[in-house]
Amino acid sequence: MKVSIVPRGKAALGYSQSLPRDVALHTEDQLSDTMVMALGGRAAEQVVFDVVSSGAQNDLERVTRMAYAQVSDFGMSEVVGPLSFGNEESNTLYKPFSERTAQLIDGEVQTLIEKNYERAITILTDKKEQLHQLAEALLEKEVIGTEELINILGPRPFSKSVDYDEFINAAWQNTAAESTTADGEASEGSASADGAGGAAAAAAAMKEVGR
Question: Which mean pLDDT values do the consecutive 10-residue runs of the chain (211 residues) have?
């Protein structure tokens, strides 16, 4: 995991970056957690400054798409039911449901987003001290990785996945091997640029880990 306040690309502000995962299935709880995470920026503005800005536009667009998918594609709404209407963006003149169903979907999406936003507000309010510590660390270093995040926020509240452990262990092994090689060559009077580069790459990769 890496968090930065340095703008990159079209991003108006900073960004967080984690190791991509190829996951085909998502539970309701996983989708809810992802929404809460995406709403964290907007929620932090409200908690800290008691005012919101336009900086969270991309996050809100993402959350809105996720909520509509959860309700109308994945069948995860008790009100709408276990139905999937697919993606009909290519034909805006035809919708495979009635106006009443459209209103139900809109209502469920709004309720879902509001619930997850309130959850984000609650979490950040309870962890406001850590939030300020994280902000101070970013102002000082501009970019922080997994180790700094753990030092500030504490360990993850649930056990790490097997993929996470395997990735971390492999990175540590690569770092140790490269360090040993570099130390051996340095003792002979020659430094290994490749070894230093490999160790740096392994360290950088470790900072990218989110799960």
Answer: 73 63 80 94 93 90 96 94 76 77 95 97 94 90 87 77 54 54 43 34 36 37
Question: Which ranges constitute the DSSP H helices of the chain?
Answer: 28-38, 40-49, 57-72, 99-126, 128-141, 146-153, 162-187, 193-207
Cα–Cα dist 175/178, whole Å: 5
Rounded CA separation 8/12 (Å): 8
DSSP 144: E
Residues 146 and 130: their CA atoms lie apart, in Å, by: 15
> Do the beta carbons of residue 206 and residue 145 sit within 8 Å?
yes
Q: For residue 88, give the amino acid letter.
A: E
> Tokens 């101070």 identify what position?
136
The C-alpha angle with vertex 179 and arms to 173 and 180, in degrees rounded to 5, equals 90
Q: Is 81 helix (H, G, I), strand (E, B) or coil?
A: strand
Residue type, 141: K
CATH number of the structural domain 2-155: 1.20.58.760
Domain ranges of the chain: 2-155, 160-211
